[in-house]
């Protein structure tokens, strides 16, 4: 055991490690901002968490220096007391009451160590979970990764390599001191620095292919590994912290910090990996497990076994197994080298040659558009209607040309007066700007099935070829729909539209050298969005009502003309002939022959013409003509009868004028007194009154003897 104040030396190393860790963290922060490397970001977080470790070691070893000084002072007091130099009540105290620094050290072991352990676990969890722009499980080919462009990779290789070398020297020096029992706690800081050293070497190694071959994948994979390492270390420290409560202890044992990583200690311990495992197991179980033959065998054979495993892995990476429905593109230093068919093939080991397998015999399918995540609380609709919620179906909203709406908007704009604001500001009016465009929004769901025929073009042309194909399909669909009308998109020409889109997308895919053949393109759904579906249906309903009203008016038109003229054609021809006659009446240049021809045409349409096979008019007009003819004949016959009667009266007047006059008077008197009761009274004088009884009864109805004149 060392006797020359070893605690001071350990404290100085802990302070030096704290300063080095702070400077290293600041350097890595600057390098991260300079290069924008995600792997350097993870290494910075790892170095920042190491500051807490060295801070704890500096505090502990400083307190142990105080304990050592306190022990020397107590020993000096004891000697003076024995020599009788010092006397007084103050020197009569118990030795335990004088060990204030020792009690404070025990307090630090009991409380400060758990506090620092919890802080380190929280720091590792925060740095591993929430300090990133990309999520765990996200592909390194995702858009978040593609937006990160690394810069200054050449100089970063040398700077990070130099930092790794300095960290390695510091770690080896601390590991050498940690072999002694007095400085065993320094092993936690040394292990952490060794982890930073390995991470820095790996970062330099991944920046090299980025600079020379523009390969971003190794740096991104390392960022993934280092981020997962932060979470693994947090889990290990927490696990050690919990197990430390159940580990058997001997009185006076120095506690081993939970943040003394056994995982990182495998690389920092100079005795090898097997010895590090043995020490960790010995510490956990409390006895010498490493003295068994198994650990001794592992200690001797660990390095050859690890080398053999590495050789086997590199040899296995030289084999490529291609399935029956695949082709493999082999890249050499990031450049496509050759394409191999199904079977077993040889290539140079990773990372010289890398094989990318492509499903060339499989039909690939994707649905264009975005789909909302399914809502488990939403009730599933039995039917997919325009007015139903089916947002889980991928769709694209496109603009459709509506010429009728544009004409209407421009007509309204031309007749709309300028607003007061336009007049005040002096700007163009709504009609002058011409900004109104008649368009409609439709919701289109399109499915595309394709097959890869050239694996090399599919792999090497674009980073994400399917995303490029989606972009081409979306662009062509949007561009095509902008020149179509709503009636054509929703009408019976769906198959024609699909064939046209198929040809356009296939031509663009060939132009982009995607190496695919489109096998199927289908429009699964074309309809308005839900928020406009009801208004769209109202427009369709209004159109149907308009058509129904027109058809009803046409039916009423045909009915009325048929009722009037017997058929529609005759009525329309008669209406046209009457209009022509009216126009001729108002035309001073029209001749009599024109009038006569027009009247003859009307007569022919009304009464018909057997020679020209024109039937007479029917319907209500035919009845009116028939009644007019009957009334004409009645009037003519009545007038003729009156004329004949008048001639007979004139003849009788010439023969007997007086008799004719008496008869006419009596006839007029009879007509005038018709329907009036008559009384005949004859008187000779005022006294003698004679009454005459006139029997005006028809003799036929009189008694027989009276009728025969017997009385």
Radius of gyration: 59 Å
Q: Based on helices, strands and strand pairing, what is the structural class?
A: alpha+beta
Beginning-to-end CA distance, first to last residue = 195 Å
Mean of residue pLDDT? 77
**Strands, total number:** 11
Description:
With 711 residues, the chain is of the alpha+beta class. Among the domains are: 6-256; 319-362, no CATH class; 366-372 and 392-418 and 438-528, 2-Layer Sandwich (Tetrahydropterin Synthase, Chain A), CATH 3.30.479.30; 660-705, no CATH class. Helix content is 61%, strand content 10%. The protein contains 24 helices and eleven strands. It has helices spanning 6-35, 38-83, 95-98, 100-129, 143-146, 153-177, 186-213, 217-243, 262-268, 273-285, 293-316, 403-415, 420-425, 430-433, 455-460, 465-481, 486-490, 494-511, 530-565, 568-585, 592-607, 619-655, 657-672, 704-707, and strands spanning 319-322, 326-332, 335-340, 343-346, 353-359, 364-368, 396-401, 439-452, 516-527, 682-683, 689-690. The strands form four sheets. Strands 6, 7, 8 and 9 form a four-stranded antiparallel sheet that branches. A three-stranded antiparallel sheet has the order 3-2-5. A two-stranded antiparallel ribbon has the order 1-4. Helix 1 (6-35) packs antiparallel against helix 6, helix 2 packs antiparallel against helix 4 and helix 19 (530-565) packs across helix 20 (568-585). The model is unreliable at 86-94, 418-436 and 706-711 (pLDDT under 50).
């Amino acid at each position: 055991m060392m006797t020359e104040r070893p605690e001071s030396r350990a404290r100085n190393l802990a302070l030096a490690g704290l300063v080095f860790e702070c400077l290293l963290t600041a350097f890595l922060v600057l390098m991260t901002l300079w290069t924008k490397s995600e792997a350097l970001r993870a290494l910075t977080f790892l170095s920042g968490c190491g500051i807490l470790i060295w801070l704890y070691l500096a505090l502990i070893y400083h307190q142990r220096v105080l304990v050592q000084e306190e022990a020397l002072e107590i020993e000096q007091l004891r000697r003076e007391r024995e020599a009788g130099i010092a006397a007084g009540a103050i020197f009569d105290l118990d030795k335990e009451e004088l060990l204030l620094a020792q009690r404070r050290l025990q307090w630090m072991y009991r409380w400060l160590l758990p506090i620092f352990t919890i802080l380190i676990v929280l720091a590792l969890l925060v740095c591993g979970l929430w300090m990133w722009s990309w999520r765990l499980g996200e592909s390194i080919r995702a858009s978040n990764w593609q937006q990160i462009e690394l810069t200054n990779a050449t100089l970063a290789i040398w700077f990070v390599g130099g930092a790794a070398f300095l960290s390695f020297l510091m770690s080896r020096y601390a590991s050498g001191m940690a072999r002694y029992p007095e400085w065993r706690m320094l092993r936690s800081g040394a292990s952490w620095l060794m982890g930073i050293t390995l991470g820095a070497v790996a970062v330099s190694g991944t920046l090299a292919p980025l600079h020379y071959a523009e390969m971003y994948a190794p740096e991104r994979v390392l960022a993934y590994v280092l981020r997962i390492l932060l979470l693994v270390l947090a889990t290990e420290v927490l696990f050690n912290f919990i197990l430390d409560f159940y580990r058997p202890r001997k009185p006076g044992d120095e506690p081993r910090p939970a943040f003394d990583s056994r995982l990182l200690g495998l690389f920092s311990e100079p005795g090898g990996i097997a010895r590090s495992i043995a020490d960790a197991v010995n510490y956990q179980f409390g006895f010498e497990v490493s003295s068994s033959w198994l650990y001794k065998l592992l200690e001797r054979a660990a390095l050859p076994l690890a080398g053999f495993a590495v050789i086997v892995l590199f040899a296995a990476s030289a084999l490529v197994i291609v399935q029956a429905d695949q082709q493999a593109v082999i890249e050499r230093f990031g450049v496509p080298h050759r394409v191999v068919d199904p079977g077993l093939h040889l290539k140079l080991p990773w990372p010289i040659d890398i094989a990318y397998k492509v499903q060339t015999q499989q039909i690939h399918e994707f649905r264009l558009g975005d789909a909302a995540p399914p809502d488990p609380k939403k009730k599933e609709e039995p039917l997919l209607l325009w007015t139903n919620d089916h947002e889980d179906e991928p769709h694209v909203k496109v603009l459709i040309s509506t010429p009728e709406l544009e004409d209407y908007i421009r007509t309204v704009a031309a007749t709309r007066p300028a607003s007061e604001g336009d007049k005040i500001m002096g700007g163009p009016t709504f009609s002058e700007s011409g900004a109104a465009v008649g368009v409609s929004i439709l919701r289109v769901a399109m499915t595309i099935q394709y097959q890869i025929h050239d694996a090399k073009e599919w792999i090497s042309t674009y980073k994400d070829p399917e995303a490029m194909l989606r972009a081409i399909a979306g662009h062509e669909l949007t561009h095509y729909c902008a020149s179509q009308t709503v009636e054509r998109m929703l009408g019976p020409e769906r198959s024609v539209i699909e064939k046209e889109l198929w040809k356009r997308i296939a031509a663009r895919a060939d132009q982009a050298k995607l190496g695919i053949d489109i096998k199927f393109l289908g429009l699964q759904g074309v309809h308005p969005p839900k928020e406009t579906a009801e208004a769209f249906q109202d427009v369709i309903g209004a159109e149907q009502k308009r058509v129904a009203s027109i058809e009803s008016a046409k039916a009423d038109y045909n009915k009325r003309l048929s009722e009037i003229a017997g058929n529609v054609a005759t009525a329309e021809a008669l209406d046209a002939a009457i209009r022509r006659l009216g126009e001729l009446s108002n035309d001073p240049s029209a001749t009599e022959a024109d009038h006569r021809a027009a009247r003859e045409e009307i007569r022919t349409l009304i009464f018909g013409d057997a020679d020209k096979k024109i039937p007479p008019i029917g319907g209500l007009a035919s009845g009116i003509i028939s009644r007019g003819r009957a009334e004409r004949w009645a009037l003519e016959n009545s007038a003729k009868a009156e004329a004949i009667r008048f001639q007979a009266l004139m003849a009788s007047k010439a023969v007997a004028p007086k008799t004719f006059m008496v008869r006419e008077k009596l006839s007029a008197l009879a007509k005038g007194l018709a329907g009036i009761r008559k009384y005949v009274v004859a008187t000779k004088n005022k006294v003698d009154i004679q009454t005459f009884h006139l029997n005006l009864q028809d003799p036929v109805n009189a008694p027989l003897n009276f009728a025969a004149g017997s009385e």
